[in-house]
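Justification of computing resources. Each target in the renewal requires a structure prediction run like the one illustrated here; the chain below, 118 residues long, is used simply to show the kind of job we budget for.
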Amino acid sequence: MEYNTTNSDIQKTAMIEALEKSLGVITTACKSVGIARSTHYEWYSKDEDYKQAVDDISNITLDFAESKLHKLISDENVVATIFYLKTKGKLRGYIEKTESDVNNNHSGEIKIIRELIK
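Resulting C-alpha cells:
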C-alpha cells in the first residue's frame, strides 16, 4: 500500500521536532521550520493528531520545569519552596491572601494588606 505524504505533513513533522527542541516555544519553532504562527494554530485547531503531539510536548515541558523546581527545593532554595507551597499547597492552607481596604477617605490612597496564611 502506498501513502501520499504531503508537503504539509512534512512541515508538521518538522514543526513537532522543532517544538521538542525549543521546549514548546512556538515562535522559535515556527521560525526554524519557516512557517507562520497562524499556520501552526490552524493545524492545531484542525488536525487532532497534530494537536495531541503539541499538547504532549507542553506536558513534557511542564514536567521538565517541575523537575527543575524540585531540584531547587532540594537545594534548600527558600523562594522555590515558598512558590511551591503557594501553588501546590493551597489545600493545606499555604495561600497568599490579599485584602483591599477601599474607604472613601478622599486622600487618593489605596491600602493593600498582604499576608501569607499558615
